[in-house]
Amino acid sequence: MSHLLFGAFEINGVNLTSQGLWARPDQNTHRYTELSYWTELAKLLDRGGFDFLFLADSYGYPSLEGETPPVAFEQAVEIPKNDPMLLVPALAAATDQLMFAVTTSTSFEAPFANARRFATLDHLTKGRIGWNVVTTSSAVVTDLFGRDRYVPHDERYAIAQEYLDLSYALLEGSWEDDAVKADKVRRLYAVAEKVHKIHHHGRYFDLDGYFNCEPSPQRTPVLIQAGASSTGRAFAAGNAEITFLQGKDTASLRSQVDDLRGRAVEAGRAADAIKAVVGLSVVVNESEARARARLDDYLSWVDVDAARAYYASMTGIDLATLDPDASFSSVQTEGGRTQVERYRGSSAREAAADFLRYGMREFILTGTPTQVADRIEELVGETGVDGFNFTPFVSPGSYEQFIELVLPELRRRGLAAPLDRQPGTFRKRLTGADRLPASHPADRFRRSTQAAAVGS
Ligand SMILES: Cc1cc2nc3c(=O)[nH]c(=O)nc-3n(C[C@H](O)[C@H](O)[C@H](O)COP(=O)(O)O)c2cc1C
User: In which band, very low, low, confident or very high, does the pLDDT at 228 lie, cut at 50, 70 and 90?
Assistant: First the structure.
């Protein structure tokens, strides 16, 4: 795959990052409860040549010292939020080549039910579905699901690995590829001998039975992961096909990309088996100065208390309680570590100033369309990333600008894919094949692979 991947970073709610921008006159995220808002956006992205709509999600909401501050409701910080999965069928029906990535949690969704939903979406979208696998670091969710303990960071990933192994067994191992005949003449829908019970008895999950979805185009949805901690990257190396990396400077991003490639090879996969994607925000205007002024205007709407609550909901850390002069390298958390590790070299004051202004945005480019395209080309050269997760300031305005002014320039340079792409599955877009390769760990759950192992 030669062209850069472009994702659209969204949430089925009012605010993604940059808490407070929802109130701008040119911001339309307050319409998130309307299906027409999403079909309009999906059609814009589809026509504009975006590769996928990424729908982040969490059941969680901010909590500071056990209480949810009023600002969380006043500025809609992670609450309210609707279920993103329910948007996908309608958006797939309204588009041709746009892919969809939906977030679900390995800590709170039942593996059988989750696999069934993704298999169903894989059927309905003809394979245009990806799964953003998260472990849910938000502490309030433990209480929402009546769990008796908050699971520490690394154990959440151990649970996630067993969860994925069980998901692979269900999605790849229960039905043989040619089990379904749907033969009305012979009145034979499926061959019973080609459908197999799964028996899983692990440390965290137990399951005995058949998967009740027949094989779908990709079987396993495209696997996406976004934890940049060391444990998170090990998990990605063993499972993911797309990973969202963190980083505002090319050096740290380059090292993360190289580390990820190395870990993939160690896991027996190809070095480029995982597409490295980083967040990108863009403000285009006739001049660099005018674009910067527009950026400052956007950021002037950020509500600092709301941003503080947002940081806490992801990391479990209240920035206001830290000694401003202390080094961030001393900050520890069992919550999400990515947003902590990114400030390792900073003081608490510097970290707070950065996050309370920019949120979880990574690269922010301002300038004319040519200047922005130049910078994107440089970034790719310097870091080796495979694509960008476009993080808008205002919707749909930021997308319209990028689609109208920057993507055509990137296409002219051969960096972005042509618009007349052949429809196909998400995985085919990434690898040229619909199914996970034999080098992926899921392969060992396939009947054919197990039979070959027994036969050898
Ligand atoms: C681009 C991006 C999107 C993310 N989307 C979600 C999400 O939708 N839901 C969620 O619970 N966490 C999300 N996260 C958080 C990660 O899944 C992960 O919990 C976090 O990065 C911490 O991982 P770590 O502790 O392994 O560093 C996202 C992170 C990034 C960088």
Answer: confident
What confidence score (pLDDT) does residue 456 get?
Answer: 64
pLDDT for res 422: 85
pLDDT at 1 over 90: no
In 3D, which of 105, 5, 96 has the Cα closest to residue 54? 5
Q: What is the pLDDT of residues 374-388, one digit of tens each?
A: 999 999 999 999 999
pLDDT digits (tens, 9 = 90+) for 97-110: 999 999 999 999 99
- Separation of CA 105 and ligand 1 centre (Å): 11
| Residue nearest atom 23 of ligand 1, based on CA coordinates | 227
Confidence at residue 301, expressed as pLDDT on a 0 to 100 scale: 97
Q: CA dist 82 to 32, 35, 133, 186, Å?
A: 8, 12, 18, 45
Top mutation candidate among 103, 108, 248 for ligand 1, by most atoms within 8 Å of CB: 103
How many A from CA of 228 to the centre of ligand 1?
Answer: 8
Average pLDDT for residues 380-409, to the nearest whole number? 98
Distance from residue 147's CA to the centre of ligand 1 (Å): 21
Domain 5-281+365-454 has CATH 1.10.540.10: no
Q: What is the pTM of this model?
A: 0.97
Ligand 1 centroid vs 132 CA: distance in angstroms?
9
Mutate to test the pocket of ligand 1, among 59, 137, 311, 385 (most ligand atoms within 8 A of CB): 137
Q: Does residue 389 have its Cβ closer than 6 Å to ligand 1?
A: yes
Q: Which atom of ligand 1 is nearest to the CA of 137?
A: 19
Q: Which residue has the tokens 């707070």?
A: 352
